[in-house]
Amino acid sequence: MLRLWRATGAPSRSALGTSRFARPRRAPERGVTFEHHGCTPDVAAAAFCASTASVVGDVALARDASVWYNCVLRGDGAAIRIGARSNIQDGTVVHVDSDRLGAKGSRPTIVGEDVTVGHMALLHACTLGDRSFVGMSATVMSHATMEEDSMLAAGSLLTGGKTVGAGELWGGRPAKFMRRLKPGEIDFIVESAAAYVDFARSHAPGDA
User: Fold this and answer.
1) Where are the transmembrane segments (predicted)?
2) I need a surface site. Which of 28, 68, 139, 202 has the fewest CB within 10 A?
3) Per residue in 12-27, pLDDT tens?
4) Could you give the 3-state DSSP secondary structure of residue 80?
């Protein structure tokens, strides 16, 4: 399902010539998946898991979900579920709560459908409803919830137990309610998810 990244407009092999910097194209790779305590990640055939992503334990990726380069999804104390057409962008870390980590009970991380999680975000034992949007470098802490059609601004910290209501924009550190989302912003969330389905297909093997 995967292939190496190739930039649009990158120099051709003939342009590179025989330079010692030219690298032969090698076969695509799958992201690294690890079994943990008998749980093996369940990655749908139509999902994309980048070659440098690490997916561990009780993790499931639904159809057309995508997990991008250098992400870590570690389902070693509870489950992680990524819904259809949702994207977890480059460098994001997704983890869970566990009794073994001092939490009062295990708690999964659940990501609904058509969700966008921006680059370098952190999700920890939280719930993201359908068509929610987490901005780049934002953090969603344990027991926090984002309801459907909601947005967390880039760089924000949604502290434990807080809820971003449906149709709301929150931002800041700690994050607080800012305003209601405009119809066009909600449309953008859906468009973002659809765009990442297309991006993932362009990174898949066989799409030369």
Assistant:
1) none
2) 202
3) 333 334 334 344 333 3
4) strand
